[in-house]
Design goal:
- The structure holds 2 protein chains of 2 kinds.
- Chain A has 21 helices and 28 strands.
- Chain A folds into 4 domains: about 220 residues, Rossmann fold, CATH 3.40.50; about 60 residues, Alpha-Beta Plaits, CATH 3.30.70.270; about 230 residues, Rossmann fold, CATH 3.40.50.300; about 60 residues, Alpha-Beta Plaits, CATH 3.30.70.
- Chain A is an alpha/beta fold.
- By secondary structure, chain B is mostly helical.
- Chain B has 2 domains: about 240 residues, no CATH class; about 110 residues, 3-Layer(aba) Sandwich (abc type-2 transporter like fold).
- Chain B starts with a helix and ends with a helix.
- Classes of the chains: A alpha/beta, B mainly alpha.
- The interface between A and B is medium-sized, with 32 and 26 residues.
Chain lengths: ~650, ~375
């Protein structure tokens, strides 16, 4: 195989901050190569350098044999590149139609008219956009915008495709369609692709990848290789008495996470046999069932960072627990603290929220999931009383949102996606401001002030300005400020966007404690599907409607009943394997990097059939896994069936 | 309005002041506006004719011609000397090196002595209308003076008092600014203009900053009414700008330009506070319709121009076209200028200005309530 891109000890600094340090990687031609990591990992910087739009001082980058060291050499490779920047449809013109957008990019790239015609027809067909040609780009859904962006990037038949976070904020179905479209085009046109993502669960989509954090590469290779290199195990325990078990589990294992009705424990240093023994002792003769679960890149990422900095802060709400306990006990855990009844919100002719109903009980973490523009924020705005609904009713902490929005405002905490802090004020000033807005003063304010510093582990930073805190700490401060008046209801609007996996995990640990110990009802919106696992129950929104509403466990169980388990095969020629299976009557065969994936009620027998079929065609199977359906699978199924109901 | 209500207002006002104090550039700019800008306004922008550079072509070179030229003296004129010819004169005027050139013809003295009328040419650069007019009339005065002297000397009268002719003496009583110092007018005007700009812009800027950052959403979800959210901003702007006015008055206007403050200080500060209130209301309006700081700037400039032009600050209302005159009543600055100059220079008290004060307060309240209403509505989109 040929080398398409070679990066040798690349480094880039912006003034004093180091964006990327000593990164080397090689991308073979025909490969889908991933850069995976949280915001600020240096992914965009590296991609810009490869595209030749960023000067850099350290290292060497070669693209298709051309060393990029000058403006001239950068220009020489530019016609072979397609680059799509970060942000939904940011490179497109909102007022132009799909057709006009494509024509514009074609003219920009000097595509000959006769080629343009056939190429446009083909790309639109693959993208499923042919019937919307004359629709203005601003009226497209997020997923369609992203596909149009890809079509425009591909119109001049580039040899190397560079996509910066193409799937961020897109719903699961569009995300899957996007990957399918990409797989097909990369295969048919022999392109090479360099793609970045912040979602760790997309790792399996890449042939190979680099896992990045703060400008450095943590590991490289195929997802399987990386997982194999860091051997560890993950056990999921289903338990009705998870709260009682937690302290013992925390003592016995490195990683313990409470996810809704489930506890997940994991370890890297500890042998799994020893883990099983310890677990057996803790559970004793309980009725709990537990099973191994495949370890993901997210766990590996956290593990690798833990090894680098051992001093990740451990949150504790417990110091002040006694005073909260009293108030907590008074609320019955069955109390419904948030209730939405057929909420509707229309903006002119557009229905942003369509008959949304759900309820959230005290002590429950409720997830409101959906893509950007699905209507999550509008629901929160109505429930918090800053936006009157067009129809339906809502109750928060016993108050009707239509008649007593001021009482609602007093009894809720709210934290928005932007972490609404005053960045020019210090940590302490922020805390005091919000405390006083919520009517605290004197000794009580001092007490709560201390509490916020404690849960956020911010004691050392109390005189630092909020703007100079790192994202994770800023987010904990915002959470603390939202909790300053001990609300019974907490609204969190995309609280973790832009925070790295470690920050996210710590944040969720606090939320679980809040719900458990203080019986707070928490409504959280997110577009990270992995976070859905943390919720006790959740509602998935799609185009203003709730299309799924249950606990993650039930949702997965229902899908398992309907469609069976997931058969995942690692094969030598994945593209070919996919088309062979599809032509032999297997439906919904999905491609994940070098694996093919399909649903089956009898995975064992089907597995054997498939293996025989593929072996017949000379395709080698190196690994077979039978997996439980994930929440992502559930969401795809739910969204698609809601689409087909509409059609 | 319970204690809690006030406590919230206090907390938010304190926050605004803290945020202002952290913005070094904003603090320095405000300090400069109230001191440096007012100083330059009073000192630099002058409508007096001082040391106007003049040249002459004396073709006569006689005692009389020199005597005539000698009438154009400092501090009004600065005689730069002889200009050689017509061409050089034109050049010096074109370049703006001279304001005027006097041309004294040959036989100037002989004609005068022979009792023949003669003339002096005067070329004047009137591109600056005010200076041009002043120079023109001063030269005219000088010439009239010179003619009078000639006439008397021909009548053999040594001094006008010896003449038994009745004369009219004009006894002007120049009120409020007896020396006619334009620095008094200009420094006070400049202070008022600075206040107009800042009260509009500061309010709009601190509000739109919260909008840009998204913190306004947090405040809206807190148990605060729009009035409670907006009032602290206006209070903070009041405190900042009233301190600025105090600085202007006590550091620049009074000590540097020796403006005699005739009225009551408290009344002037009260009037200023009401004016800031009115302009802040307009600032809230600007912030609600703008999405970012750049839009705030554009809209502020758009609104400040008519407010200043219609205020009568530079053109007396009577001199405006008829259709414009009723609009003057809508400019908050019109009332402020009326009352401000009245208090500072004329010593007006409340009994003389209460009508203007009420009108200004009414305009301010309409703007403020309109701002609150708009602010309330903006979330419903």
């Amino acid at each position: 195989m040929q080398t398409a891109v070679e990066v040798k000890s690349f480094g880039k600094r912006f003034k004093k901050t180091i964006a990327v340090e000593d990164v080397s990687l090689t991308i073979q031609s025909g490969e889908i190569y991933g850069l995976i990591g949280p915001d600020g990992a240096g992914k965009s910087t590296l991609m810009q350098a490869v595209s030749g739009v960023l000067r850099f001082e350290k290292g060497e980058i070669t693209v298709f044999g051309e060393k990029i060291d000058s403006e001239a050499s950068a220009n020489r490779i530019k016609r072979q590149l397609g680059f799509m920047p970060q942000g939904l449809g940011l490179n497109l013109y909102p007022d132009l139609s799909i057709d006009e957008n494509i024509d514009f990019f074609a003219n920009l790239r000097g595509v000959a008219p006769e080629i343009l015609h056939t190429r446009k027809a083909k790309l639109l067909d693959v993208a499923g956009l042919s019937s919307f040609k004359n629709r203005a780009m601003k009226n497209l859904s997020g997923g369609m915008k992203q596909k149009l962006g890809l079509v425009c990037t591909l119109i001049h038949q580039p040899r190397l495709l560079i996509l910066d976070e193409p799937t961020t904020g897109v719903d699961p179905v569009s995300r899957r369609d996007f990957w399918e479209m990409l797989n097909q085009l990369v295969r048919e046109e022999g392109m090479t692709a360099l793609i970045s993502t912040a979602y760790m669960d997309e790792a399996s989509r890449f042939n190979r990848l680099s896992m990045m954090h703060q400008g450095k590469v943590l590991d490289q290779g195929t997802a399987d290789e990386i997982i194999r290199r860091t051997p560890g195990w993950l056990i999921e325990i289903e338990s009705a008495r998870s709260r009682e078990l937690l302290p013992a589990l925390n003592d016995a294992f490195e990683h313990v996470e409470e996810l809704g009705d489930m506890i997940r424990i994991g370890g890297f240093a500890l042998q799994s046999a020893e883990a099983e023994r310890r677990l057996g002792m803790i559970l004793q003769d309980g009725t709990e069932s537990w099973s191994y679960s495949p370890i993901g890149l997210e766990e590996i990422f956290i593990q690798k960072l833990d090894n680098r900095s051992q001093n990740t802060p451990q949150m504790r709400l417990t110091e002040n627990r006694s005073s909260h306990r009293k108030e907590a006990v008074s609320t019955d855990s069955q109390d419904t603290l948030i209730r939405a009844e057929d909420l509707v919100r229309r903006f002119d002719s557009f229905t942003a929220v369509d008959q949304v109903s759900f309820d959230v009980r005290a002590g429950e973490i409720f997830g409101l999931l959906g893509a950007n523009g699905a209507g999550k924020s509008t629901v929160i705005k109505m429930l918090t009383g800053i936006l009157p609904p067009s129809g339906g009713a809502g109750f928060v902490a016993g108050h009707n949102m239509a008649t007593s929005s001021m009482s609602i405002k007093e009894s809720i905490g709210y934290m928005s996606q932007a972490f609404s802090l005053y960045l020019d004020l210090t940590v302490s000033e922020n805390i005091d401001l919000f405390g006083r807005i919520y009517g605290l003063s004197g000794k009580r304010l001092k007490e709560r002030h201390q509490w916020v510093l404690q849960i956020g582990h911010l004691q050392k930073e109390c005189n630092t300005s909020a703007g100079s805190l790192p994202m994770g700490k800023r987010q904990r401060l915002a959470l603390g400020c939202a909790l300053i008046h001990q609300p019974k209801v907490l609204f969190l609007d995309e609280p973790t966007s832009g925070v790295d996996p470690i920050g996210r995990r710590e944040f969720w640990r606090i939320l679980v404690q809040l719900a458990g110990e203080l019986q707070v009802a928490i409504l959280v919106t997110t577009h990270y599907m992995l976070e859905a696992e943390h919720c006790n129950r959740l509602a998935l929104m799609q185009a203003g409607k709730v299309v799924a509403y249950d606990s993650p466990k039930n949702l997965k169980a229902t899908l398992k009943q309907q469609k069976g388990q997931v058969l995942s095969l690692k094969v030598s020629r994945p593209y070919q394997a996919q088309s062979i299976l599809e032509s032999n009557g297997y439906s919904e065969v999905a491609l994940y990097g070098s694996r093919v994936r399909l649903f089956s009620q009898e995975p064992e027998t089907v597995g054997k059939d498939v293996a025989a079929l593929l072996a017949d065609k000379g395709i080698e199977i190196t690994d077979v896994m039978i997996l439980q359906p994930s929440l992502e699978d559930v969401f795809i199924e739910k969204i698609e069936s809601s689409h087909s109901r509409e059609a | 309005m319970s204690i809690l209500w006030w406590r919230r207002i206090f907390a938010l006002t304190q926050k605004e002041l803290l945020q202002f104090s952290r913005d070094l550039i904003l603090v320095l700019a405000t300090l400069y506006f109230f001191t440096g800008e007012v100083f330059i306004g009073g000192k630099g922008v002058s409508f007096d004719l001082i040391n106007a550079p003049m040249g002459y072509m004396d073709h006569d070179q006689s005692l009389s011609s020199r005597e005539w030229l000698n009438k154009l003296r400092q501090p009004y004129f600065d005689m730069k000397g002889q200009v050689t010819d017509e061409k050089q004169a034109q050049y010096l005027l074109d370049e703006g090196l001279l304001l005027g050139v006097l041309d004294i013809p040959e036989n100037f003295e002989r004609n005068l002595l022979n009792g023949v009328s003669t003339s002096i040419g005067f070329q004047l650069d009137a591109s600056n209308v005010i200076l041009g007019n002043l120079a023109d009339s001063y030269v005219g005065l000088a010439n009239a003076h010179s003619n009078q002297e000639w006439m008397l000397s021909r009548l053999k009268v040594v001094s006008p008092d010896q003449m038994q002719v009745p004369a009219i003496e004009a006894r002007q009583i120049i009120l409020y600014n007896p020396d006619g110092k334009s620095s008094w007018f200009m420094s006070i005007s400049e202070m008022m203009t600075v206040l107009s700009m800042l009260s509009l812009f500061l309010t709009a800027a601190i509000l739109v900053k919260e909008k840009e950052r998204g913190t306004i959403e947090q405040l809206s979800i807190a148990p605060l009414t729009p009035f409670q959210i907006l009032l602290p901003k206006i209070l903070a702007v009041q405190m900042i700008l009233l301190s600025g006015i105090a600085m202007s008055l006590f550091l620049i206007v009074i000590p540097v330009f020796e403006v005699p403050f005739q009225g009551e200080y408290w009344l002037f500060f009260l009037v200023s506070a009401v004016y800031i209130y009115a302009m802040s209301g307009l600032g809230i309006f600007i912030a609600t319709i703008s999405k970012n700081l750049a839009q705030v700037m554009i809209v502020s400039i758009l609104l400040i121009m008519p407010i200043v032009l219609l205020s009568g600050a530079f053109t007396p209302p009577e001199a405006m076209p008829e259709w414009e005159q009723p609009l003057i009543q809508l400019s908050p600055l019109y009332y402020y200028i009326n009352m401000g100059f009245g208090i500072i220079l004329k010593g007006n008290d409340l009994s003389l200005i209460w009508q203007d004060l009420l009108s200004l307060f009414a305009i301010g309240s309409v703007l403020f309530l309109f701002g609150i209403w708009l602010f309330h509505r903006q979330f419903e989109r």
